[in-house]
Amino acid sequence: MALGRRRKEEDESAIDMTPMLDVVFIMLIFFIVTASFVNESGLDVNRPPTSDEPPPETENTNIVFRVSESNELTFEGRRIDVRAVRANVERMHAEKPEAKVIVSAHPKSKTEMFVLISDQAREAGVYDVSLSTDE
Question: Number of folded domains in the chain?
Fold first, then answer.
């Protein structure tokens, strides 16, 4: 009799996992379906084709701003603030009207710096703004 009682107690103490697995699978399907409809916002960038030939010397003919990895902005070897970009572009554009603005940025710098510099350059009257990356 003792053996019959143990088997009966073991059968009664077993937990049925089927309803819990059903709920987990339904939640999994719900999260997969809702996650597929999330649209990431961003900028579409059309990259120019790469070439092995060195770029032409742009220091003398263009207005070049350099952005470091820590988002520090330099112009002609001196560190400047983003708010000073417009004045520098206006001064250089008066000397060289055909000059273009080139932002030479480190690959790990923030895109925000390029946007701020290009906005300041456009306010100064130069609409030809290019982005290049440092190696």
Answer: 1
